[in-house]
Amino acid sequence: MLKQSPIIGCFAHDKFQFAGVNGMRIATLSNTSSYLDQPTGDYVADLSAIPKRLVVGVEAPVWLAQQGIEAPSGLLQYHLIEDGTTVVKLHHQQYLLISGISIMTRLPLGSVFDLDEGRHGNVMVLDYECAEIAIGGPHLAVLLAEFCPMDFAAAPEGVWIATPMAHCEVSLQLNRTGKPACRVLCSPAEAQYLFEIIKDVIDQHDGAVLGFNDYVTIIVNGGVSQP
What does the DSSP 8-state code read for residue 111? Predict the structure, then answer.
C-alpha cells in the first residue's frame, strides 16, 4: 500500500497528476505550469518521496565506511558522495542518508536504501519519516526573509542548519552557487502548513509550484526528461 506525501493535500487534483514514487503517492506533474517553457523564476516543490535512512549506533561510522560511505565528523555537517547521496551527522551516534535524486528510481540491490529496517551488524537502520521541500530561484533570499529569521547572506554552506521557519522547526541546506536553492526537512505534522505558507509567498512573486517529476526534469536534469 502506497504511503501518501504529507504535503499531498496542498496540490489541487485538477491542476496536478499524481503517481507513486518510491512507495509514496505524490504530485508528479503540473497540468498548468508554464515553468517548463521558462524555468527562470522562483519555485517550490514537494520532494518527500526521496528515500531517507537513519543509521544509529556507536559504531555507525565504521559500518558506513564498510558500505563505502565516509561519515562526516562535525554535527550537522554533510558529505555528498559519488552517486548523489547525502550523509548528514545528526548526533554523535546518528547519521541521516538522503538518496540522490538521479539514482532513487534505480537503487542498486544491497544499497543502504534497499535494506530492511532493523539491526544490521552493530547498528540500527531505520526509515526516517519527514517531509522535504525544495525552494529556489533568483529571489530566494527575499523569499526566505519573509518566513525565516536566518541571515541568508551569512548562513554557511556545507552544513544542514537547524532554524525556525514560519514557526516550524526545520533543517535547511543552502546552495548559493549557480541557481540559488535550498532543501528543507520538517516533521510530517507541520509539512502542509509550512508548504502553504511558502506557496503563498512564491505566488506573490509569480513563482511556480512544481510536481516531483517537474522538479527532476527542470531543476536536476536541466530540462531533459528521465528515461
Answer: S
